[in-house]
Give the backbone structure.
Amino acid sequence: MEEKKIIELKKKLEDLLNKEQNNTDARLSLAALYYNLGNSFLRKKKFDEAIKNYLKSVAIDKKFVSSYYNLGNVYKEKENLEKAVEYFKVAVKIDPNNIPAKINLGVANSAIGDSKECIKHFKDLLTQNNYKSNLNKTMEYDIRYSLGIELLREGKYEEGLKNYEYRLQASDYPLDLNQYKKKPKDLNEIKNKKILAVAEQGFGDVFQFIRYLKLLEKHTFEIYFQCNKKLFRVLSCIKSIKKFYNFNDKVEDYDFCIPLMSLPLLFSTDLKTIPNFSYIYPEEKLVNDWNNKLKENKGFKVGLFWQGNTESSGSKKRAIKLKDLETLLELKKIDFISLQKGSGHEQIEKTRFSKYMSDNNNIIDSGGDAFIDTAAIIKNLDLVISSDTSIVHLSGAIGTKVWMLEPKIPNWTWTNYGTTTSWYSSLKIFRQEKADDWKKPVKDLKNKLSEILQR
């Protein structure tokens, strides 16, 4: 409908309601008109105008559930998640059968860091008949996958890992598992068998979960590993792997396929049984080469890495601006070494770090093999300070002391609590208390580093 006609219709309905205040049809029509106007502005990403119209809609009809639901969506887009939760709650209260509103209420609670409330809503969706009878399989799998993440954040590994396994059937799962042979049901099934383990997600996930291949070796005949070929060399120190395959390679000679992140479930992992040991060993020649290059650095050697790939919203939340770390320059007797590779390295010249730290972007891992120089440098450091990236996992796997700056909504690996983790004995976590505010964790980290330097 043209804007001019909408305005004319709106005036007619308003005039009619002024004359006939109890005209239910006119009231519903005007509420729907404001709702549709709100939708129009929402599509154009004119969020404030959309909010105004949705609020007019619910002012006219206090039970117009679609307007409450879209108010939740608008505030979610604006990243005002507390407001989003507020309106999704109203939508669910008015219409207890509204599955999209219930799902988004769970998602919004997750986004503000309320895992307990999120778990409650996701479990409602999976157990209450008014919801579960109307879920299709894809929706159920997506909900179970998300539920698994929240349970793991709460440290509930048994239930969490079982639900996390539904990621393999979730709508956004990156691998086509139909091209692989079946997954084993348990450890007994793989005795004397050839196993193909497959990397699933980012490099950090590979570094974290590759440790399980050492445990797997005791139960199988041979293990093959399929991953990005850039990782072959840095992972070649893991002798449990008989052969590496690139993702483009066709692999036929194996009996079972195991997605790498399914291994914790296969081994019935909980917080007390996570295998915690050093398992990545940088190449000795490169370690010695970098030792020579860093000889001039006589102080406490601290490697810095501040952002990973920021193309995804999650990575953006984890990234830190190097400028936010300038306060560390007030500490004496520290030699800062940049580990930053790729996007983010250009920040060095725009900060005071440019006087104290070289940009190593062009000399670290300059060939086709990723992380080989990075690993060798890390082995020579006293401490690594990093945002939540693959560098944390690589440092932990090497056994170098690493301090991680973690956003308010953590990766499930680190749970919602504490400053240490069962995954890496060398890791200390400095958490945001307020979303997008790094001042407190950086201050805490600086104070801790100052203590060490004074010993």
Observations:
- The mean pLDDT is 94.
- Strands lie at 194-198, 222-226, 243-245, 256-259, 300-305, 334-338, 383-387, 402-406, 427-431.
- The longest strand covers residues 300-305.
